[in-house]
């Protein structure tokens, strides 16, 4: 591949006259790695997701959780509100 003149003097690659054949090399799973270990950013997490640690689950302490109050953003109307709206729209 040659370098030719480009916009504002920045060289741009120019394809050469001959062609190159590329080979795509794919990983094989014969080396003992699982697919999830190769695609997950951290292999330990990938293993834990497949097989959860039951000791951690049984010894989990719910009292250490933060207390929160949950409120609906758009609560559904009550039956009374629906009936009142129907009466107002029909009169």
From TrEMBL:
- What keywords is this UniProt entry annotated with? Actin-binding, Cytoplasm, Cytoskeleton
Q: Where can this protein be found?
A: Cytoplasm, Cytoskeleton
What is the predominant subcellular site recorded for this chain? cytoplasm
The lineage's top-level taxon is: Eukaryota
Ranges where the record places region Disordered: 62-91
Q: Which Pfam families match?
A: Thymosin
Naming one, the record's GO cellular component terms include: cytoplasm
Where does the chain cross the membrane?
none
Q: Name one GO molecular function term.
A: actin monomer binding
Which residue intervals are annotated with compositional bias (Basic and acidic residues) in the record?
Answer: 80-91
A GO biological-process term: actin filament organization
Matching InterPro entries, A to Z? Beta-thymosin, Beta-thymosin_sf
Q: Which family does it belong to?
A: Belongs to the thymosin beta family.
| Described function | Plays an important role in the organization of the cytoskeleton. Binds to and sequesters actin monomers (G actin) and therefore inhibits actin polymerization.
Protein name (database record): Uncharacterized protein
Which organism was this protein described from?
Hemibagrus wyckioides
């Amino acid at each position: 591949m040659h370098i030719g003149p480009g916009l504002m003097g920045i060289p741009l690659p120019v394809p050469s006259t001959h062609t190159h054949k590329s080979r795509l090399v794919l990983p094989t799973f014969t080396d003992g790695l699982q697919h999830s270990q190769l695609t997950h950013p951290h292999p330990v997490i990938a293993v834990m997701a497949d097989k959860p640690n039951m000791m951690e689950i049984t010894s989990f302490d719910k009292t250490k959780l933060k207390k929160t109050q949950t409120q609906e953003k758009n609560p559904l109307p009550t039956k009374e509100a629906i009936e009142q709206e129907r009466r107002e729209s029909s009169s």
